[in-house]
Amino acid sequence: MTTDLDKTDRAILAALQKDGRMSNAKLAELVGLSETPCARRLKRLENEGYIGHYRAVLARPALGFGVVAFVLVRFAVHDKNLANRFEREVQAIPRIIACHNVSGSADYILQVVARDLDDYGTFMRDQMRSLPGVTSVESALSLREVKADSGLPLS
């Protein structure tokens, strides 16, 4: 699908990944278009699904979330219904900010935020270990974020 994108489309997407609140006038200036053709291209990129949605990236420490953990979740029984129940419940837990079904020694990797280690421990005990299908969990605590989600490569 990305083969349909020309240099200007990629420039629009790259600019919006850096600043999703950019005005159409500023975006048009950055990519070398007038405002109307830029707005048309932007609408087309949205309609064709290249832009999933817009959102603000919140400052985790400012909101009191001092702990980021990556949790490897393993199932003993691989049952589609159990996995579906697990995924539905994970969707409903706000502190699980990402969840991926993966290959390898774990079935899922979750990214979890917590206020502090005590809060994280309580979450693990009261919520994580009681999710459907979970037979073991392993945590890797982030010591320092080296690179945050900086957008997709568009070259």
From TrEMBL:
The keyword Manganese does not apply. One of its GO terms (molecular function) is sequence-specific DNA binding. It holds the Pfam family AsnC_trans_reg. It comes from the Bacteria. PROSITE patterns: HTH_ASNC_2. GO terms for biological process: regulation of DNA-templated transcription; response to amino acid. Keywords: DNA-binding, Membrane, Transcription, Transcription regulation, Transmembrane, Transmembrane helix. The chain crosses the membrane at residues 57-77. This is Transcriptional regulator, AsnC family. It comes from Paraburkholderia graminis (strain ATCC 700544 / DSM 17151 / LMG 18924 / NCIMB 13744 / C4D1M).
